[in-house]
Amino acid sequence: MSLKYAAQPVSANHYVLPRTGTMRTDAHAFLSEELYAETDEGTWRQLFDAASYEGVIGAYLMPDCHAGYGVPVGSVVVTEDTVIQGGSGYDISCGVLYMRVPGLHAADIAAAEKRKQWIDEVEKRVATGVGASAPRLAPKLRGSRKLEAVLRYGAKAIGVQADRCERQYIEIPEDTDLDLVEKARDKALPQLASVGGGNHFIEMQVDEQSGEVWVMVHCGSRGYGWQTANYFFYEGARARGIPTAQRERSWLRMDEPLGKQYWAHHNSAANYAVANRHLIVKGLQDSLEEVFGKQGDVYYEISHNLVQEETLLLPDGTTQRGFVHRKGATRAFPAGHPDLLGTAWEQTGHPCLIPGSMYHGAAILFAEPGASKSACSVNHGSGRILARGAAKRQLGPRQAQIDLEMAGVVRELGGVSVKGIVANTKRTPLDECAHVYKDLDAVLAVLEAESIAKVHHRLYPVANLKGTD
Predict the structure, then answer these.
(1) Distance of CA 143 to CAs 22, 211, 223, 265, Å?
(2) Which CATH architecture has domain 4-466?
């Protein structure tokens, strides 16, 4: 039976896969007709599997969804008392931080030479690439005691204000031993305040309407998070009798010893990731000051690979506590959400930061009341059409050349003509070509049509730094 064609349209942008077989709940997909047509059977099979785990009370596809490991990328799974490790994946708490640079306008960065100079300054201060370490990290952040504080208290350990991030930290019981995964500890300190490789990046962007300059950081928990996830995938599979080759499908009960160990280590990786993103900011501020005489400040920071215990807003107006797994999805609390009470974002909802792609740009959204039907979640980007491995196999130099030509397009940003994207690489990596991503505007249109979220800022890249794989 085709699961894709078993899904029934609720509206022009909302499909439901009725509970069937081992599913414990109906599953919902927020897709336009065109995006629905692009989804493959593998994505729907993973949605079916996600809705079949013990303890699941909700399963959702975001409009940027595609097949992943265990659960789809661009999915949200809600449980009562279990944790699905694939719901965070290997890069626990991968996410985005935005800096706003008041006083710096498109006209100030229009010259490509100035943007290249900024890239050069950033590369002096921020380490990028797989396995990269951050030797320039301030001495006061060195040492095992400081690392322990970061793992337990995240952004709070380095003095970041609570209203600048989705959360300062996730609490870990004081008597919890975080030395279980030795390989993770070995990676943690050297890689703190670094970006990494893959699709992680630092990017200067310009607001399409105002012309104001922003800087985005996209990275996660580095080797610490990967080693932590890898260890518990194997342990979880062993505990559940799941074949090693299918270990990404493992899950744990929150009341069992292994589940408690995973939850503590997952949260320590999340705390590490938040601190990591904020520690990169100083190098970016110094680089902006050096080239443009402006520093900028953190606007907001948020994760899009994470499990969090939250208050769920149900469509009937009631609430329920649950564990919300966002794999390639972004939290989207609207104004008045119970978990925002007493915060700076209580009246407006918090910003939802969406990186998109180099060629389709990025966006900042704010949730609308309709977010209750998507577990208060939105997409985390444009969404891939081709997986990284497939892109490298199927695309060639011609596609990369076309991308370079696209990068030379002149955009009108805040009334100023800005040409191209200055990058720290001479060619676009094949797995990051424009051809591998969906159209971000088409993805965002679904959210607006369903009153889940509204676009407040549309931004386009003008300078990009990627780490090498």
Answers:
(1) 49, 42, 18, 19
(2) Alpha-Beta Complex (3.90)
